Amino acid sequence: MPTPLPPLNALKAFESAARHLSFTRAAAELHVTPAAVGFQVNVLEAHLGVLLFERTKKGLVLTRAGRACLPKLRDSFQMMRESIELLGRFKDKETLTIDCPPSFANRWLMPRLHRFLMQHADIDVQIVSRMHGFGRSWTQQAMEANDSRQWIAELDMVVVLGDGHYEHLDVTPILPLTLTPLLAPALAARIDAGAPAQLLSLPLLYDDRGLVHGGKSYWQLWAQFALIPAPDETSGHHFAHAMTALEAAVDQMGVVVSAPALALPELQSGRLVAPFPVLSDCGVAYHAVSATRRPSIELFVQWLVAEAESTTRALEPFTHASA
Q1: Labelling 144: which of 45, 130, 134, 262 has CA 20 to 30 A away?
Q2: Three-state DSSP class for residue 182
């Protein structure tokens, strides 16, 4: 049969007095009187039938029994404190589950998310990633529509790259899709920044996250904007995610037309450059889409918009304005 535990107050009084070897200092720590500490220690000794202190003229001295139990008791109180702190983290804490396209999540959202969590300690954010289509509306893509509406039902919010025409849902534009060629400085040195057609002489990389505007790829959109011939996309490396296409560009495998907002760290470090004008009106943007806008979701959306504005300002020194 397990031995009954002694009173918690008695254990705490002994642990404090044993650390300080003083009823007076233990009393100050516990905000009680020295007599109260001494009483609790006496209660503990009586409960255990063992002396824990020798009371001498020079002060308290731990007995062999007191020395033996102090380390584990001290560790136990520390574990209790840590457990209570851990439980406190769950007090009134709300969890938001956000679905994002993989490249947006990895290249843009996750490196910034700590700032939101530090500002709103009572909100936890869980990120999941699934591919999303572009279409004018989900109703024009039956499978995508069904998937996206199902995700909205399951999650708190979905970030979608599209034109924002999502009926009966709360929609906020976050970050417009802009496009420009991105390449390593070593490759950029091989061409004239004033002659965009020379890009076609370099190895080409393709960010194939989706096809927009009548089936035109990112390269086709930017080539039309820059008034150069569209590349032959049957050759070159194609990537399903912007993050892998950008990594390939950093490794000097070629030049990719992609979103500079997803490559800000590489532009700031000089691992990538954007020497040509930016196509700033692609007709699509990243949108925050939800069925409702309760206060925590609204806070997160407002934070996303502010971070997107900060990203746009940070890109200005590294990109060229639209021609």
Answers
A1: 262
A2: strand
